[in-house]
Amino acid sequence: MRRLLKLLIPAAVVAAGIGLWVTAPDTVDAAQFAEATGNAEAGKTVYTAAGCASCHHAKGAEDKNLLTGGQAFASDFGTFYAPNISPHPEAGIGNWTQEQFANAVLRGVSPAGQHYYPAFPYTAYSRMTDGDLKDLWAFMQTLPASDVASKPHDVGFPFNIRRSVGGWKFLFMPDGFVMDVPDDLARGQYLVEALAHCAECHTPRNPVGALNTGQWMAGAPNPSGQGTIPALTPDKLKWSAADIAYYLETGFTPDFDSVGGHMAEVVQNFSELSKEDRDAVAAYVKAIPNP
């Protein structure tokens, strides 16, 4: 027994060390975000494309740029509530630095060094350029502040162990874009895969909640439990690129139906972008292969 313990104890120490290393928060290079040099006007486009207000405004609020938070997002792992990300110094993110904001958006790490749950789509935002991140931060400073406290997530054991999210990130945090596209589709890819994080709804997930990229944009169960999110693959979506762009501008389908549910917020965002951006998204969608 003593000999067995002599073997097991060092092995346990090594395993614990590896576990701590694997689950440790990964942060940005501080030097990249040391100065706030973003352009707020350009940041408004990033903010709109990224759908920040769609999730973080209070449900039913008239001013959708008042990012009080509170919207509920149900999942198999618990219910997550969008936090207050207004520039309020206590209730929101007004006391954050640009580096802390970059860590949150690009790495899913809080100012306190804790992992954020991937209900916050930082897996997609991790593809955001440093320039867009800085512009977004500059624009966020111009928004109204709200003193409403963020609502805690309703997540039970073992999913409430934040450190375990580090292991999930180790396995599933992307290190690049999903599709290999030519240069003329790069803007559409950036909007779809990074800013607008379309795959978060349109791609199915594995048992631990990570996107199944082998079924890229192949449709998925609706997180609300009602119906499914449609596929964007060519075997399912027969719309032309012009149809897709028009839908993103107006919310009307080629079959004279109109957008509904959370997609209405997405269309509202895209309608505020340029025609060129909508066309770029449509071109990317038409390039998605069948699973």
TrEMBL record:
Signal peptide: none
Protein name: Cytochrome c
InterPro entries (alphabetical): Cyt_c-like_dom, Cyt_c-like_dom_sf, Cytochrome_c-type_DH
Entries under PROSITE patterns matching the protein: CYTC
Gene3D superfamilies on file: Cytochrome c-like domain (1.10.760.10)
PANTHER family in UniProt: ALCOHOL DEHYDROGENASE CYTOCHROME C SUBUNIT (PTHR35008:SF8), BLL4482 PROTEIN-RELATED (PTHR35008)
Keywords assigned: Heme, Iron, Metal-binding
Organism: Thalassococcus lentus
